[in-house]
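User: My instructor asked us to take a sequence, write out its structure as tokens, and then describe one feature of it. I'm not sure where to start. Here is the sequence I was given:
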Amino acid sequence: MEIRNTYMARRIQNIPMVTITIVSGLILIFLLLNRSIHVATYSADLLGNEADLVMRGSVFRIFTALWLENFDIMALVTNVLLLLAVGWAIEVTIGHLRFLVIYIVSGIIGNLLTDGVLALIWKIGRNWRWIDASSYLAVGLGASTAIAGVSVAGVTVFRELGKLRKNRLRQAIIILAVVTLGGSIFSPVIRLTMPLDGSDLAHIMGGISGFILTRFHLGGD
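Assistant: Let's start with the prediction itself. The structure tokens for your sequence are:
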């Protein structure tokens, strides 16, 4: 009986419970808030990450925006698939609580840094070439900032600790997630067709936050 309990405990530990919980929450919130265009619009205006309003004191938006995928079911599907892949690859390796902390904190810091950069560009000059200053007044939604954070965290983990080096599949999944996010950010810039918008900047800041947080945690191991 003790052996069986130990086996079951290990099986449970190998399930990315935090990832599954976050994904379930994203889907549930999407279903609740997208019942009508009015509810979706109102919730986005009330809870979305708008840099102008955050700088005026509505700081809660940098957290609440992480849970909204209003209007765009394809964005929801993409983020859910990326999060499931990355979560399966690294959550068990770094621990459930650590994964949750990196996900939430990198999302919050990433959004806050994005808002700060947009506010600075808006203030010093709105015609800056590489970043669209009008994003300062736009509403940002979605979990991709936090997903960028845990994706970069995964790369950092298997580079620094070597815990994923024996599992090529998990390495490939993490790298694919980073490349997918990076491609969505930089392809317009590489083609010289358009500057980065607030969403692109949030991905970058989320990734930077995830890297710093992971190095901080690894330093404590």
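For the description part of your assignment, you could build on this observation: The chain has a mean pLDDT of 81. Try explaining in your own words what that tells you about the chain.
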